[in-house]
């Protein structure tokens, strides 16, 4: 919604005019009422029994019209004073009809002072006009005069009451529209805040996913490369064929790592979050079907993995299949860095869950870890398992070694 432009200099001027507008309008109304009576006093002929205009007539006319100035703040006092002026004017029996000011005053009070005060002003005005008609000379106040006077007074009161009711209804509608607009604006702000928060959470989740994938790919590849490079360095002179095999393994692992990196960079480069076919290969993401190739990489580094498989895992949801593969990759990489030369990998598959266990007996006494890790491996495993409401247990064994146990519900839905 576009906010209307405001003139910086218009506000104070408009506020000052609002403060003086009502007194100016009411004063002008009183002057016009008095002027109309004064013109009638000058122009209207004197009938039998009536008195010619004198200065007192104009003064009484001022008393009748002047209360119009204060009718907004003192409506009943205004109509009472005007009635007194009406009676005093009628006692003088002047020729000009004085009821026009009373009509205008009753209309204005009904318009500005509310229903109850408007009705009271109408009754007081009727009393004043009846008194004025009763004081007229014989033959001046006819039946037509009575009917027209009371009818005009009633019409003035009803017109003021009707206009006031319409103004209140319009004001109420504007207030309702303003409240609805404010509610819509509040809802729009809350919606924008929720969207911004959802975007922030999505960005944070995507950054975490990218960090996990980068860690899994780079940590595994670098660990294998470090081990194989160390083997090649130590046997280069005595066993050149073993050094060549280690270098060949380094080449394969490095190429596969670059493929994974290109795939992730292709996703990051594409506007819609899908793979960029110009930068990323079209091969599917790795899963448990690639477990044999993964184990061969570790075997080439000297880590022997004994596998126990108690159920088919080919029907896993794609996201769970990839995460299970990454969990095994990271768990065996941790064994390669810190554990012994033998690792036990167990996969327990049931219709409701997939359980992964990796256990090693530890490195021989006095030997140092092959590589130093980043410290994010177990944390990454926990984050991947949490996406599926899975549970992770990672702890050293009492007799040495380390055991990693991950349980993943098969029916869980991954987020991100």
TrEMBL record:
- Keyword field: ATP-binding, Coiled coil, Kinase, Membrane, Nucleotide-binding, Phosphoprotein, Transferase, Transmembrane, Transmembrane helix, Two-component regulatory system
Region (Disordered) location: 269-288
Does the keyword Translocase belong to this entry?
no
- InterPro entries registered for this protein in UniProt: HATPase_C_sf, HATPase_dom, Sensor_HK_TwoCompSys, Sig_transdc_His_kin_sub3_dim/P
The chain positions of domain Signal transduction histidine kinase subgroup 3 dimerisation and phosphoacceptor read 206-271
Q: Name one GO molecular function term.
A: kinase activity
* A Pfam family the protein falls into: HATPase_c
What stretch or stretches form a coiled coil here?
160-198
Query: Its Enzyme Commission number?
Result: 2.7.13.3
Transmembrane regions: 24-43, 55-74, 94-112, 119-137, 143-160
The Histidine kinase/HSP90-like ATPase domain covers: 323-411
Q: What class of enzyme is it?
A: transferase
Which SUPFAM superfamilies does the entry link to? Answer: ATPase domain of HSP90 chaperone/DNA topoisomerase II/histidine kinase
User: Has UniProt tagged this entry with the keyword Cell inner membrane?
Assistant: no
Task: Enumerate the catalysed reactions.
Answer: ATP + protein L-histidine = ADP + protein N-phospho-L-histidine
Superkingdom per UniProt: Bacteria
Q: Which PANTHER family match?
A: NITRATE/NITRITE SENSOR PROTEIN NARX-RELATED, NITRATE_NITRITE SENSOR PROTEIN NARQ
Q: What is this protein called?
A: histidine kinase
């Amino acid at each position: 919604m576009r906010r209307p432009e405001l003139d910086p200099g218009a506000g104070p001027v408009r506020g000052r005019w609002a403060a003086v507008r009502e007194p100016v309008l009411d004063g002008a109304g009183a002057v016009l009422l008095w002027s109309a009576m004064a013109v009638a006093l000058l122009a209207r002929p004197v009938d039998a029994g009536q008195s010619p205009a004198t200065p007192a007539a104009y003064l009484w006319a001022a008393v009748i019209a002047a209360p119009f100035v204060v009718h907004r703040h003192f409506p009943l006092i205004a109509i009472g004073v005007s009635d007194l002026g009406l009676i005093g004017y009628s006692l003088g029996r002047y020729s000009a009809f004085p009821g026009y000011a009373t009509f205008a005053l009753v209309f204005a009070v009904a318009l500005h002072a509310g229903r109850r005060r408007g009705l009271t002003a109408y009754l007081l005005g009727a009393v004043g006009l009846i008194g004025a008609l009763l004081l007229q000379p014989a033959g001046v106040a006819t039946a037509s005069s009575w009917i027209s006077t009371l009818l005009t007074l009633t019409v003035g009161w009803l017109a003021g009451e009707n206009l006031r009711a319409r103004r209140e209804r319009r004001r109420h509608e504007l207030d309702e529209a303003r409240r609805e607009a404010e509610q819509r604006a509040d809802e729009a702000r809350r919606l924008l805040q929720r969207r911004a928060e959802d975007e922030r959470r999505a960005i944070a989740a995507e950054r975490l996913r990218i960090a996990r994938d980068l860690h899994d790919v780079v940590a595994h590849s670098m660990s294998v490369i470090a081990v194989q490079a160390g083997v090649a360095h130590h046997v280069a002179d005595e066993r050149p064929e073993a050094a060549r095999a280690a270098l060949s393994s380094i080449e394969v692992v490095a190429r596969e790592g670059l493929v994974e990196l290109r795939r992730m960079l292709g996703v990051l480069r594409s506007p819609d979050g899908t793979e960029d076919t110009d930068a990323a290969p079209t091969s599917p993401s790795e899963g448990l079907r690639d477990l044999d190739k993964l184990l061969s990489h570790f075997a080439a580094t000297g880590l022997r993995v004994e596998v126990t498989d108690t159920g088919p895992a080919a029907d896993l949801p794609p996201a769970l299949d990839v995460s299970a593969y990454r969990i095994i990759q990271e768990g065996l990489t941790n064994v390669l860095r810190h554990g012994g030369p033998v690792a036990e990998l167990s996969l327990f598959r049931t219709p409701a869950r997939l359980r992964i266990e990796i256990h090693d007996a530890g490195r021989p006494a006095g030997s140092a870890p092959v590589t130093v890790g980043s410290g994010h491996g177990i944390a990454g495993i926990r984050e991947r398992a949490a996406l599926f409401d899975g549970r992770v247990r990672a702890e050293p064994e009492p007799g040495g070694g380390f055991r990693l146990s991950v349980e993943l519900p098969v029916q869980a839905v991954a987020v991100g």
